[in-house]
Amino acid sequence: MEEYEVQFVDRSERSARFVARPITPAFANGIRRAMIADVPTFSIDTVRVIENSSVMFDEQIGLRLGMVPLTTPVEEFELGEEVTLSLDVSGPEREDPEETVTAYSGDLESSDEMVQPADDNIPIIDLKSQQRLEIEADAVLDSGREHAKHQGGVAVGYRHLQQVEVVGDRSEFDDEEPQILRGVIEEQEAEHAEPVDGEPVENGDLVPTDQFGNDLSKRYPGKELEVHDVPDAFVFDVETDGSFPVDDLVTQAAKTLEGRAAELQETIQL
Prior knowledge:
Layout: E1 5-11, E2 15-21, H1 25-37, E3 41-52, H2 58-66, E4 82-90, E5 101-104, E6 109-110, E7 123-127, E8 132-142, E9 153-169, E10 184-186, E11 206-208, H3 216-219, E12 223-240, H4 246-269
Antiparallel strand pairs: 1-2, 2-12, 3-8, 4-6, 4-8, 5-7, 9-12, 10-11
Helix pairs in contact: 1-4
């Protein structure tokens, strides 16, 4: 089985940029699609309205609740399983047209401590005096293939890793025009590169182009340049909605592809 190399350019709990190689464009797109459509998350699917004396229709409340990201522990639940949440918020006690109470996602109470709002500060509705919203809701585990509200990967993209080649010096009479490039470069011309924030430059470094304002003329001043794609190397930019850490999103997406490949192999051998 072929070994794949993954190098992180930057990484946090909810977002990451990494280089994967050697992979084909088809495999890169398969990973992207799996992160969007195949990794299941919890999302509110059914709402039972006990009281809604707000100015918003029940259907609008349900729509807003359905788009609240919920934490989804990996491999703890099966597809189709449900968790119940409740919300009970009233407006201010005194009558003041300028005063309201905001119902936030953090006001949702879950029957399972593992499934909670991923963010507590998502506003649902403002309530005035004598207004109240009380609901019960069922969150179901499903995939983005069935509905966009189950897409844990909210921003997933990829592009070729690129290298810059210095092919000569600019004439002293040439105007230094910007040469814009966006993405990540694999440094191969360290001896010509300007240090970023005083850091030493070495060949093989993975450098986000925003570190030098996406302008190659600032990275390699006075040089004639050519940009080349690195064969079979792709840069992924991934962001989750907080349902799970970005590491879980990527690894679960890879597992779904592995499972499909095994299923296909078994089918062919029958």
